[in-house]
Design brief:
alpha/beta; 3 domains; 4-stranded antiparallel sheet; 14 helices; 43% helix
Length: 381
């Protein structure tokens, strides 16, 4: 009998606890409902049911969320910060989410980081990283690329997911193409820009199918130093770099994309910055096959090139005492030495990069490759 009595006592206690718990949960939800629908004082309601409000904080209207945030409620500061971020009020948002960092969970840290990533708030992501509030994940690895982290620190599965490679990997040559081109960049924006170039070229190969094959963009990080400025030629220090020893062999040309500097091609190596347009890229690609600019060449180049005579490029004829080829027209390439001529009377892609590649120049490009494919300077590893 005593055992049975104890059983009934325990059952009654459990039932009471359940009723109390259910009542408490009901009171919590009613308190939250009153803020949502009956204009109850959100500050008072929050302090009566802080845990329930914390779990449902993002359901509050912006005005209530803002009031809690301004009263230094950490969960509300976080939620209000995200709300402001979604409305592109990034600087004001930072005042609130930054104040909540010591209180938010790992899941909340990831959500904040992903929102900052979508808006390319690199300094804010770097701040999270310094405070050890940036969990491993996409935002963390994107920041690594942006900060030009060492190759060895990159997450391989993340890079594969983006369709990028790292310089230490073996990259295969595509035998069906006349020229294989290795695409490199030392920073995140460069990798994405190279990918856009590669995809756009695949939609309309120039000057013909299977002329150029481009590797997936390869991340080189801090393995090479590029100190270009906006107004000077894009340039990286290949002589002091150990990068060349890590590159796969057999590629004909190399494209290196630093952050700054004007595009240029020399000895099978193109430097082009990560803000360049596809039109500039196509213009530079033609330089791989010997085409010359039809605007005024740099003075140093004119000093030797414009002293030559005859057909010095597929699109440039220099005359001293000879007549220009029939149908050719004066070019601005040479301001000293001989008189320069070009095939077209109109502006071409080699004079003004925004001009589309004409059928005339496409045919000239294709013919020149067919006749001289083995003579173009390759990148010297």
């Amino acid at each position: 009998m005593k055992t049975l009595a104890n059983f009934f006592k325990i059952s009654v206690l459990l039932l009471c606890a359940s009723l109390i718990s259910g009542s408490s949960n009901k009171q919590n939800s009613i308190g939250f409902w009153q803020v949502l629908h009956a204009k109850a004082n959100v500050i008072d309601s929050y302090w009566q049911f802080p845990r329930y409000f914390a779990d449902h904080i993002l359901r509050l209207p912006p005005s209530a969320l803002a009031r809690l945030a301004r009263n230094k409620v950490a969960h509300a500061q976080y939620g209000y910060g995200l709300s402001l971020l979604s409305n592109k009020q990034t600087e004001t948002a930072k005042l609130f989410w930054q104040a909540s960092l010591s209180k938010i969970s790992l899941v909340q840290q990831k959500k904040l980081a992903n929102m900052l990533l979508t808006q390319h708030r690199w300094q804010d992501l770097a701040l999270l990283k310094r405070k050890n509030k940036l969990p491993k994940g996409d935002a963390f690895y994107h920041l690594q690329l942006q900060q030009q982290a060492p190759l060895e620190t990159l997450n391989q599965s993340f890079m594969n997911k983006l369709g990028f490679l790292v310089a230490s990997e073996q990259i295969e040559i595509q035998a069906q193409c006349i020229f294989n081109v290795l695409m490199l960049s030392d920073h995140r924006d460069g990798l994405f820009r190279l990918n856009r170039f590669r995809n756009k070229y695949a939609q309309q190969p120039e000057p013909n199918n299977n002329t150029f094959c481009f590797s997936k963009p390869v991340y080189v990080g801090n393995a090479i130093v590029c100190n270009s400025t906006k107004t000077k030629f894009a340039q990286c220090d290949w002589k002091k770099s150990l990068l060349k020893t890590r590159l796969p062999k057999g590629f004909d040309f190399v494209i290196m994309m630093p952050k700054q500097g004007t595009a240029n091609v020399r000895n099978g190596l193109m430097h082009i910055n990560s803000r360049a347009s596809y039109a500039v890229f196509l213009h530079e690609l033609m330089h791989f096959n010997g085409f010359e600019d039809e605007y005024a060449l740099p003075a140093k180049k004119q000093a030797w090139l414009c002293q030559l005579e005859g057909l010095v490029a597929p699109n440039l004829f220099i005359a001293h005492h000879k007549e220009a080829p029939k149908g050719w027209h004066k070019s601005k390439s040479c301001q000293q030495g001989g008189v320069a001529y070009k095939p077209s009377s109109q502006w071409s892609i080699m004079q003004y990069q925004q001009v589309a590649l004409s059928e005339q120049y496409r045919a000239l490009w294709q013919t020149h490759i067919e006749q001289h494919a083995d003579l173009f300077p390759r990148f010297n590893y």
